[in-house]
Amino acid sequence: MRRAVALAAIAACLLTSLPAHAQDRYPSRPIKLLVPFPAGGPVDVMGRLVAQHLSTTLGQQMIVENRPGAGSTIAGKAITMAEPDGYTLLVGSAATYAIGPTLYPNAGYDPNTFTPIAFVSSVPYVMIARPQAAQRTVGELIAYAKANPGKLNFGIPNGAPPHMLAAWFRNLTATDIVIVPYRGASLVLTDMIGGQVDLGFETTSVTFAHVREGKVRALGVATTSRLPELPDVPTMIEGGVPEFVASSWTGIVAPPGTPRAIVNKLNAEINVGLKSPLLQDRFKQLGAIASPGTPEDFAAFIAKEQPKWVNMVKLSGVQPE
Description:
By secondary structure, this protein is α/β, with parallel strands linked by helices. 46% of the residues lie in helices and 19% in strands.
């Protein structure tokens, strides 16, 4: 009997020590990074930059998996249901934390249960137009839209932040501009370059190259002051839309209950990447601002941003498609 009890005790000790041992060896296999939007959009761009860095420093492949749909809530639910072992991560944004859950209240997950790992970046939004558009400024656009209700359209990724910005713009300017939902930012740009879409809101990370090549026209930047990379493009405020300031922010999050040791390791490695000359140079090309910090810093930022985007969804009156 004593021997049986002793063996049972040893077995219990071995079982309870396995998770800690597994954490010490983390990562021992490839890591999946979920992106809630199609390839080519701003969230995807940031996710892939982080994945490339971590693949090198962690010694394990980071597999980027795009899971678009339902305003990013499909990916949000998937991360909630994943094992909290550090092998499934998510690129979190205003869409997964505020917009999607507000548009789809039965999405099946609570974003506040996610485990924040690291704040990656914030990227300004730019109002863009097809290159053939007659309107060259935000002021001219507003005047034309008022005189020709329903003639112009916005191409936007459905349920994503640009959707909210387009609806917010219509609300603030009292204009009737048709909103055309798309599955992702890259599809919007393809149709805008082809002349099928009049207007859109996208980040500098997606638009810089197209603007410089003349494939799309930048009308205004949603910042408090002009961007050094686009010095000739006025702010939306200068264009006659007061307080129109917004940026796309992204960070890496994990399933609820992910061990602190894994969170700390990933946070440290991501911060090293954000401070590296390689990523700093890449971020500068995209107009992105790196935001290295602790998981608590990221959690505090989310707590501040979440209500703002929830209110924007409600103000916009956008309904899920």
